[in-house]
What we know:
This protein is an alpha/beta fold. The protein has 3 domains: 2-64 and 68-147, Nucleotidyltransferase, domain 5; 162-346, ATPase, nucleotide binding domain (Nucleotidyltransferase, domain 5, 2-Layer Sandwich); 381-584, Alpha-Beta Complex (DHBP synthase), CATH 3.90.870. It is built from 21 helices and 22 strands. The chain has an 8-stranded mixed β-sheet, with helices on both faces. A hairpin with a 2-residue loop joins β9 and β10 (258-264). α7 (207-217) crosses α10, α8 packs across α11 (284-310) and α9 (240-248) crosses α11 (284-310). The protein binds fe (ii) ion. Fe (ii) ion binds at residues 150, 154, 176, 179, 319-320, 348.
Amino acid sequence: MNLLSIQTGHNATIGLMENGEITALLSQEKLDNIKNSAAFPYDAIKAVLSERGLGPQDIDEVVIASRMIFPQHCLDPRGQEVVSDHLNPPSTIRFVKRLEKGLTGVLLPWVFRFARARRHAKLCAEGVAHLQNRLHEIGLSDKPLHFIDHHLCHARGAYHALEREIGNEALVFTLDGMGDGLCATVTRVGPSGEWQRIAETPFNASLGSIYSETTRFLGMKIMEHEYKVMGLAAYCKGYHLETYHRVFEPVINIDPGNPLSFRASLDTSEFYDYLAKHAVGERFDNIAGAVQHLLEDRVTRWIANAIHATGIRRIFTGGGVFMNVKLNKRIQEMEEVEQVWFLPSCGDESNPLGAAYARAIELGQRVKPLANLYLGIGYQRATLAAFIAQNHLVEKYAVSEPADIEEAIAELLAQGQVVARFSGRCEWGARSLGNRAILAHPSHLESFFTVNDLIKARDFWMPFAPTVLDIWSSRYLGNYDPARVRAPHMITAFRASPLGVQHLRAAMHQGDFTIRPQVIEQEVNPEYYRMLQAFERRTGVGGVMNTSFNLHGFPLVATPEQALITLEKSGLQNLALGPFLISKKEQP
Ligand SMILES: [Fe+2]
C-alpha cells in the first residue's frame, strides 16, 4: 500500500510510504529554490513519483498532516512569503482582539467566541475546497483523503522514525509555535506500543511563539532565524540573567495545576507587543541569552516532571522547538534522562513523516524506522554527463572524471581547498549530511573565514559544524555516549574535547566551543564515509567541516542546475558533481 502524505503551507513537504517504509521525503523548496517555500508542493510530488517510478494511479491514499487546512496553505504563492495568521495577524484581526480584551469583550465574551468559531469554520471549509482542487490538478482527487492531528504527526514522526527497540516504554514530547490549536504534548508509549497522550498545552501558552516573536523583535526573520538567536545566546556570560528576570521570567511557567503543561500570564501569540513595552533598551545579546535561558529552564523542568510522574526515562522529541541544539544538549545532560532520541529537522517539514506513520498504524500496518535521511532526488552518472555536455561546461571549467572522486575530494580538502560535494539522493531537511555539502579542512580557522567569504556570507556570530567519523566521535566530543544519545543528524550539541578543539577548530561555535556534529557510520553513507577515511589518511583528522551547499538565503541545493548556479554565483572553486570534478580555471 502506498501513502502520499502532505504538509501544506510554510516549508511545504511531501512524504511517500510504501508498505510501511518511508521511501521519499522532499520539500517543495528543493524544487522551486525558495527557502521554506509555501507553494502547494506539485513539483515535489511529481519529482518523488518520478524518483520511485510511480504515477498518481499507484497512490492508495492521501494523508494531510493537519486537521485544519486554511486557504493560504493551498494557494500557489510562488515567490511570496506566507507566514501563519497567528504569528502575523492582519490589522483587522488585531483590532478585534484588542476589542475583545477591553470592556466589550468582558461584557460580551460569547459574541467573540461565536465570531471566532464561525470565521475558523469558514476558513477551514475554504481551505479543504482549495486542497481538493490542487489534488484534482495532479490526478489525486479520487483517492481517500485523511487528516491527521498536527501534534500527533510530530509525535508519531519522532517515535516511529527513530525507535528501534519496540517493547520498551517511552515518553514522546512535542513542542512548537502552534499547530491545530496546541503547542505542546506529552505522550506515553506502553511496552506493546499503546499510545496515550497524557498532557497538552493550548497554543496561547507557547514557548515556541515566545522564541519566534523574540526573533522578530530582534529584527530577524520569524520562523526561520530562530537558530541565529540561539547562536547569539552562546556569547552571553551571565549578563543576560537580569534581562531574564525582568522581562521573560514572569511570562510563562509550568502550570501549577498540571506539571506536564505550561501556563502563560498573557497570550503568547502577542508576545511581540509585550516586548515592545518591556524590552526596549535591553541589549540585543542579553535578550537572546534571556529567551534561551527561559526555554532551557522551562523545557527541562517539564521533561523532568513527566519522567517523575511516569517513571519512564527513555524519551523522544519532535516539533520545531527541538531544532534548538543547545536546548537538546541540556536535555541529554539531565540526570533523569536515560536515553533520548531527537527527530532531525523536526519542524513542520517532518510532519509528512508522522502523518504517514499515523495512518499506517490506523490501518494496522507494520512500520519501519528511517534507515537514513537521503530521501530526496538523485541523478545517475549518464544524466550528469548529459548535463555537463548540454551546458558546455568543458569550455568554461576544468572538467575531469577522476578514478575515484572521493579520493580526489579528500586530496583537495587536505590541500586546504574548499569543495562542494553533490552526490546520490539529496538529504531531507535543513542540514547538509554530505550529499549536498560544502566541505573544508576543519582544523584551520581560516576555513571558517574562507567559506564565509567564498559563498556563505553567514552572520559573523554563527558557527559551522563538522561531519565526524564514528570511530573518532568519543575523542572529539565531551560526554559522548551513543548508548544515551546518538548524533547522526546535527540535531544536538556537545562540548568539544581538547583534541576536538585542536582538530575541529573551524567547525565549532567560536563563543563556547560546542560542536553540533554529524557522527557518521559507514552503512549510512558508504561513499561519504570513504571520503572521510581518505581525508583522515592524509591528515590524521577524523572529520571535515560540512556546511549546507547553498547560496546565502537559498535552500539546500537539490538539482544539478542549482549546483551550477551556486558555483557560478560564488567564489567556490570546486564542484564534485557525481563522479565528475568541475573546477574553475586559474585566471591568467
Ligand atoms: Fe508544528
